[in-house]
Amino acid sequence: MPLNAIDLPPHITVDFHAPKELLAQGTTAPELYDWHAKENPSYPLFMYHDGGKHEYITYAVANLAIDRAARYIASWVGHTPKGDAERPTVAVLANTDTITYFCTVIGVMRAGYTVFLVSTRNGPAGVADMLQKTNASQMLISPDVAVRQVAHDTIGLLPAGQLTLQTMPTFEDLFPKDSKSVDKAFEGGVELPETYDPNAYALILHSSETVYGGFKDPPGTRNQSAGPIDGSHRSAVALVMSYEVDTSRSVMGCHGTLLSHGLGAFLYVGSVSRRDSQERIPTLTSWPCAGPFSRKPVNGYVVAAFKPQTPPRMPIPSAVWEGLATTKCDYAWAAWSITYASYEQEWARDPDKVHAMRQMRGVFFGGAPLASEIGDALASQGVNLYTVYGLTEVGMVNLPVRPNMGLDWSYFCTNPGKQVRFVSHGDNKFEVVILSDSNLPLPIINMKYEGQDAYATGDLVVPHDTVPGLWTIFGRTDEQIILSNGEKVSSSTLHLAPAENVAYRAS
Which residues form a coiled coil (predicted)? Predict the structure, then answer.
């Protein structure tokens, strides 16, 4: 259930004031957190369970941590940029806890720099390739041996002097217990920007093709988007996800969310913003939410994470479930895992966990398909499943949170903030194409559609049999195999089969 004042410490409030005017006039992530520190100082941004009780970090406290991170980074980089031409790019390659990572990323933006989030799943060659493409001159790294080895091997692949390394802040650095434990490097008299250019580069993410490799597709192939993708402050704020139900005061379980991945990027602004509009989407007859309805993006949800510690806790399914349970999450974020086909798949085997998921307001899945038999089994038992469909190249394509879809859990309707087109590929299959908005252009363009710049996602969808406006993912355009009998199948289903078998996990 959403937060209730009766259950909270007296210094925590459940009253959330939305920054409607700030968003309407245009803003940036650093300015949003400054605004919330003043307007919602006692509202929780983060929560975690310390083994005995719940701990809450308010916007006011988090904003101070962001400020400390900004001063630490600015004192190291050495100057405040005056324009994009001299704006340093600070890469982050770190295996650290969610709260520290989160505040450090916003801190880089507050210092006036561009932040590039590098997945720790990449090897030295991939990291070096992407650092070259982004002209990153500085990189924050966590103290663990694995990350430091990758970082030092990466330096060996780069021109001498191109990259400087600095240790990632710890939770204790950003959230000191008292004045005696404050490190002067985080409290120095560094001048930080007072205003930010909404069109300046703020955030660079992996493309959807570079989570593991960091290399472009071979020259001449259709998809030339693989590689780092940069975006402005406006683009970062535009990552706010559109929901169709009220999620204020709700606890969002993000224990397994990778903040270096596009799937986790919505957290940086999603929890702080609220936009109300009356944009209409197509009437969906025979759907529980049939008819036009208003768009109401996420409003002030609380990010639940693991207790900050070094090294951070590994997000294996059992640990993530324990985190969700102890923080009493309303929503569970259960994205694709590098080790497990999906968290839901693991949890679906346990009747007690299924019962607990049924009590939640919803369980998100994204990053890869959820096996239909698993989804059907969970949905038939009353678990509310939310499809999250988006790409780093274009942002969120669908409306993730909507009324319970039941056995139509795999279907989605498009985000009214996106110009989505469906291009026929025959056999009732369509490729998702996103048109570029002149007010907020897409960072990657790979085609023209009806004379307009666009991005062809390569994702194939099929429409609902009876409900117009609903679609479900079928596969990829480059994964279609034509059998000898002429039948077309997606190779992704073949890839999933071994991953879903426990016997193959260690191979």
Answer: none
